[in-house]
Amino acid sequence: MDIKRVVITGLGCVTPVGTGKDALWDSVINARHGFAPISRFDTTDFKAKLAAEVKDFDPLLYMARSEPRKTDLYAQYAVAAATIAAEDSGIAETCDPERLGVYIGSGIGGLSTMVAEEEKLLERGASRVSPFFVPMMIGNMGAALVAMKFGARGVNLPIVTACATGTHSIGEAYRAIALGLADAIFAGGSEATITPIAVAGFTNSLALSTSDEPDNCSIPFDRRRHGFVMGEGAGVVVLEEYEHARRRGAHIYCEVAGYGSTCDAYHMTAPDPEATQSARAVTLALGGSDIDFTRLYVNAHGTSTPLNDKTETLALKKALGSDARTVAISSTKSVTGHMLGAAGGVEAIISALAIERGVIPPTAGLREPDPECDLDYTPLTARETRVDAALSLSLGFGGHNAALLLKRL
After folding, report:
1. I need a labelling partner for 5 at 20 to 30 A (CA). Which of 33, 53, 117, 319 fits?
2. Is the pTM of this model over 0.90?
């Protein structure tokens, strides 16, 4: 079988620290986080009071005036990020619609719509529930709306693997193009779950930070860490078959060179402390590639939870062996918060930019390293250096592990 090469030709994002790749990058490399008191609802009775909210988002920049009232916020973010990625890539007018696909997932889907319509049902009766409730709430609608906007009639597969959704979506899209099923695919994830019930649920499962200090609430690999900060937004890349991109003169950020997908099969929320399968996901993504590990950047899952960070450290040690101590690693969730299903998409964008721009993003807030997290996690300050490859790692509830390898073309 003729395996196709796959490259990234477009980057689009909506994040708590800016919309578009340049705004995101500027915040990330300068360790300028997006954490602030939650503004969406009254947090008086909540232990977790901080979040990383998207600011000043205007869906009418990306959708017709009639559409926002019929779409959940997560889907609006997906359309916005895909629109930005399409403009960056120029793919929309240059690809056969039947060879253009969409792999944009969401870990949770239209939760804010579900909450709002449930309140209508209980307070005002069944007749008041919106006729758009079901299409607004379901997790495939973001991908569907992107397909409709760009006339993408090819493969379309919205993936749901919790916090690994964005990375799995890009990885599976990479496989589809490599196997010749499409010439280009919009791939990534979108999420909008900063709601009372989500904050309460994550808090009660001991996942969220309850710090009231924005500068010290999301501190991956720090011994003081005690939970993640909920973020939101979307990250979408345009993946394209290499020859298709070359023929049309597209700007190529990097090549997608490997992908690993495994499951711990261990626990609903906790990672396997042996890190066997998360390590195997990394090994599968590397796939025997000839990599100079001194020029490899790892964008770690790095949630700032006690279990994740030390388990991920162990996974990298198992997968990379002695080379684990030579690679530069960071968690950009220290700036964006944990964007859940959107995290992998945004972190793939950051990884691609690290290769193109030759900068290792820092782990913001990392002032007191945990002795059990003893690798080079690039504390506080970005580092300029040549980056030939980047590994983006995502670990989701349910034990879903995904690793994506990007390389300089």
Report:
1. 319
2. yes
User: For residues 168 and 165, what is the distance between their CA atoms, to the nearest angstrom?
Assistant: 5
301 is catalytic: yes
The question of whether 373 is a catalytic residue gets the answer no
> Cα 142–263–193 angle (5° rounding)?
35
- Could you tell me if 369 and 233 are in contact, meaning their C-beta atoms sit under 8 angstroms apart? no
Catalytic site residue 400?
Answer: no
Residues 299 and 181 occupy one common structural domain: no
Whether residue 187 has pLDDT greater than 80: yes
Q: Kindly state whether residues 27 and 80 are assigned to the same domain.
A: yes
Domain shared by 225 and 76, yes or no: yes
Round to whole Å and give the CA distance between 86 and 63.
14
Task: Specify whether 214 is located in the same domain as 344.
Answer: no
Tokens matching residue 201: 């649920």
CA distance 206 to 215: 20
Residue 336 near residue 4 (C-beta atoms within 8 A) = no
- The catalytic position among 95, 163, 254, 373 is 163
Using the 8-state DSSP alphabet, how is residue 272 labeled? P
State the catalytic residue, choosing from 33, 244, 338, 400: 338
Tell whether 1 is covered by a domain: no
* Sign, Cα dihedral of 259, 264, 267, 271: negative
For residue 74, give the H/E element and its range.
Answer: helix 73-89
Q: 70 — phi, psi (to 5°)?
A: -105, 10
Alpha carbon dihedral 241, 244, 249, 255, in 10-degree steps, equals 10
Tell me what the mean pLDDT of segment 156-175 comes to: 98
Provide the number of structural domains found in the chain: 2
Across residues 276-298, what is the average pLDDT?
94
Residues 281-287 have a mean pLDDT of 97
The whole-number pLDDT of residue 289 equals: 79
Whether residues 262 and 391 share a domain: the answer is yes
pLDDT at 290: 86
Domain of 75, CATH number, reads 3.40.47.10
Residue 58 pLDDT > 90, yes or no?
A: yes
In a domain, 2, yes or no: no
Domain residues for 110? 7-247
Q: Is the dihedral of CA 279, 282, 287, 293 positive or negative?
A: negative
Q: What distance in Å separates the CA atoms of residue 394 and residue 376, rounded to the nearest whole number?
A: 18
